[in-house]
Every structure is written in C-alpha cells, then in structure tokens.
Backbone:
C-alpha cells in the first residue's frame, strides 16, 4: 500500500481528494430547490421555472380551500355563484351540496359524456 500511496501523492491524488472534501456539498444539479411552508413550516420542493413560487405546501392549500368552503356552508341555506371552467358563464348552486361543481349544468353533461366515452373501455373503429 505504501507504493500505491506514494504514486497517488506523486500525481496529486491526495490533493484532489482534499479539495473535494473541502468544497461544501450543495444541492444536486438535477434536484429542485426547497422552501419552507409559511403555514406548517414543512419543507416542500418547487420548480424554479414557475412564474409564481408558492408560499404554502399542497396540504395547507387544500386546508385553506376546505375552510373557505366550510365558511360558505355555514349559516342559512343560500345560493353560491361561480364561473364555469369550460364556457366561462356564471351559474348558481345551493351551498348545501357536498361537493361544489366546477361546471355549469350543460358543460357538466358534456364533460361527463366525454369522460364516459374516454374511459368506457370500448375502442372505436376508425
């Protein structure tokens, strides 16, 4: 082993190892940066290519949405007005529904028909 160590020392092997050990280990080049959630303090990763860097993790955002819907459900029954995701028209529905819809009645029927056709398992003949 002495001869091998002497050869490594001769060609600077130990010097390179010492330089590698002295450099701080940063994040891996392929990894995403991480940020602490302002709600729970847990670290979460995000894509640096996003235009908006989030302040809250997915769980906290889901909790905020759930709390907002619970506030809307509280009190006397009333109607809630929302904008349809597909056509952009406004529609109303009662706040007593378990799940709030994202589509108006017409678009909901079209969307359900498309999903049924897409996932029915039957293949179309071309």
Residues:
């Amino acid at each position: 082993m002495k001869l091998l160590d002497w050869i490594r020392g001769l060609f600077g092997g130990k010097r390179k190892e010492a330089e590698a050990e002295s450099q701080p280990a940063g994040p891996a080049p392929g990894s995403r940066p991480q940020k602490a959630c302002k709600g729970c303090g847990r670290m979460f990763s995000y894509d640096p290519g996003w235009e908006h860097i989030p302040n809250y993790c997915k769980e906290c955002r889901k909790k905020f949405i759930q709390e907002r819907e619970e506030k809307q459900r509280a009190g006397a029954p009333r109607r809630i007005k929302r904008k349809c995701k597909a056509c952009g028209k406004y529609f109303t529905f009662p706040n007593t529904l378990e799940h709030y819809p994202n589509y108006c009645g017409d678009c909901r029927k079209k969307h359900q028909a498309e999903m049924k056709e897409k996932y029915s398992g039957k293949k179309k003949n071309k």
User: Anything to note?
Assistant: The longest helix spans residues 58-73. The mean pLDDT is 82. Strands lie at 34-36, 43-45, 79-83, 90-94. The radius of gyration is 28 Å.
